[in-house]
Specification:
Structural class: mainly beta
Number of helices: 0
Shape: globular
CATH topology: Porin
CATH class: Mainly Beta
Number of domains: 1
CATH architecture: Beta Barrel
Oligomer: single chain
């Protein structure tokens, strides 16, 4: 997977580049790993770069329920410490067109954040996103266009601290169905 996104925040502008890979070990179990580089422009004269290494596992509990455990590890060169973020969630395929995700995100030195998101697929290519979280209050809604290899999306978010922002993203999937 190759992903690029750009967001226009009130306080800063952010560009994110992500490269990841996954491996399906059995019909019910998969692992994944990746890395991302995030560049945040605070002003026209100042910017911050951050590199992360992500790992994750997915396990199918029942036919329509998927358990996910994701870890994001960040090493900040300027501040010389290691920040870890853990995301535990459930994904349920309610119907052929509706996916519901919920879970908790725990970041080092911060209280847990509880989230829920729904994705409704219309005509197999158009997806409507909506969701939110508690602690801090956060809401999202958006639209994406999905094919077998490409996803283009536009998401709006309302954050308790950062206010209203938007994010455009592009994802390219290098997947192979025959395992090669």
């Amino acid at each position: 997977v190759l992903k690029w996104s750009n967001s226009g925040e009130k306080l800063y502008n952010e560009n994110l580049f992500y490269l990841g890979a996954g491996l399906k070990l059995t019909d019910r179990f998969a692992i994944g790993f990746g890395g991302k580089y995030k560049k945040i422009d605070i002003s026209q004269y100042s910017s911050i770069g951050k590199t992360t290494f992500d790992t994750g596992i997915s396990f199918i509990i029942k036919q329509n329920f998927l358990f996910e455990l994701l870890s994001e590890n960040v090493w900040l060169k300027d501040e010389d410490y290691f920040l870890s973020r853990l995301n535990v969630g459930l994904k349920s395929f309610i119907s052929r067109n509706l996916i519901l995700k919920c879970g908790v995100v725990k970041e080092k030195d911060f209280p847990p954040e509880y989230f829920i998101e729904s994705i409704y697929t219309f005509k197999r290519v158009l997806q409507f996103h909506s969701g939110g979280s508690l602690n801090p209050d956060f809401y999202l809604f958006g639209l994406s266009y999905k094919t077998e290899k490409i996803i283009l999306g536009y998401i709006f978010t309302e954050h308790q601290v950062l206010g209203l922002s938007h994010r455009f993203y592009f994802v390219y999937n290098f997947s192979s169905r025959n395992g090669s």
